[in-house]
Design brief:
The strands form two sheets. Strands 2-4-6-5 form a four-stranded mixed sheet. Strands 1-3 form a two-stranded antiparallel sheet. 43% of the residues are buried. It is built from 14 helices and six strands. Helix 7 (163-177) packs across helix 8 and helix 9 packs across helix 12. The radius of gyration is 19 Å and the shape is globular. By secondary structure, the chain is of the alpha/beta class.
């Protein structure tokens, strides 16, 4: 699919092109269509060819089962949500924050490996999913595949000022994934911690962290013990998801809960990375390409 390239050039020098697709006008046209015509229009908007089954499956999953706005529902709130994103200059803010983030990373780690191009898509979320709105605060992103960042948002007073910061978090995943080949639970936790701490450094103390803000005190201590004890276990995302996203999300994905509060792995990752950075006397930007074990060791694990 055009906006999720199958092959990405990775470079250690030179510029990185960040392409934020300003889809507001196109999304408006999709929303105005009869439900039966919307999937094909979304696929065309994404640059898919007629027989691109992968794009169609992705879009169908996002907009029928995931957190994207529902294609089969005629709802005036969809237009209102899109108008709020436009009024807040969501796409422009995202572009500015991502460029700031890349300049900061490139200055901190000259020669870091990176995708030569990152395609960024912001889609409209589903306002009727209580878990998405209440527990995920109406927004999140996916950026673990170098060259692609996808974000979804149903605009609220809380998340509108933080969409750019969410993109910054995902850019850290994009760049770290271009430098670290091995992946498991420990690396996933490290990635979330690095992405969160770098976002805080660049965008300020209120820019992120709401998803796991309640995981503090004794609950954080217990979560730390459970998550770090599971390092080295599991073989795939269903095994690791409960430890990163918590029991509620695990159940939604059909995985077995592990006694972890909502997004508890993020809180563990942030503490872990902060301990490493304090011990090493460096910033999150400087640690983005450091090996997993080095970061764990620096955090006392």
């Amino acid at each position: 699919m055009a906006w999720r390239p199958a092959a990405i050039d990775i470079a250690a020098t030179g510029a990185m092109e960040i392409v934020v697709r300003d889809d507001a006008e196109a999304l408006g046209r999709v929303i105005a269509l009869p439900p039966s015509e919307r999937l094909a229009a979304l696929a065309e908007m994404a640059g898919a060819v007629e027989d691109d089954a992968g794009t169609l499956a992705f879009l169908r999953q996002i907009h029928e089962q995931g957190d994207g706005f529902r294609l089969g529902r005629v709802d005036p709130h969809h237009r209102q949500g899109l108008d709020r994103l436009v009024a807040a200059d969501a796409w422009g803010g995202l572009r500015r924050q991502l460029n700031r983030a890349w300049e900061a990373i490139r200055a901190a780690v000259p020669g870091i490996r990176h995708p030569t191009r990152v395609d960024v898509t912001l889609s409209l979320g589903n306002p009727d999913d209580g878990f998405f709105i209440e527990r995920n605060l109406g927004y999140y992103g996916m950026g673990s595949t170098p060259g692609t960042i996808w974000l979804v948002c149903w605009p609220t007073e809380y998340n509108l000022p933080r969409i750019g910061a969410c993109g910054v978090h995902e850019l850290v995943h994009n760049i770290r994934s271009a430098n670290i080949a091995d992946f498991g639970l420990a690396e996933w936790i490290v990635q979330e911690g690095l992405a969160e701490v770098f976002t805080l450094e660049l965008c300020g103390p209120e820019s992120t962290g709401g998803w796991y803000a309640a995981v503090t005190g004794r609950e954080l201590e217990a979560t730390w013990d459970r998550v770090t004890a599971a390092f080295g276990t599991g073989a795939s995302f269903p095994d690791w998801t409960p430890y990163v996203m918590g029991d509620e999300a695990a159940r939604r994905f059909g995985a077995a809960p592990a006694g972890i509060p909502h997004m508890g792995g993020y809180a563990v990752g942030r503490r872990l990375v902060e301990r490493h950075l304090a011990a090493a006397g460096i910033t999150a930007a400087q640690a983005i390409a450091r090996p997993t074990q080095e970061i764990l060791s620096g955090a006392g694990l």
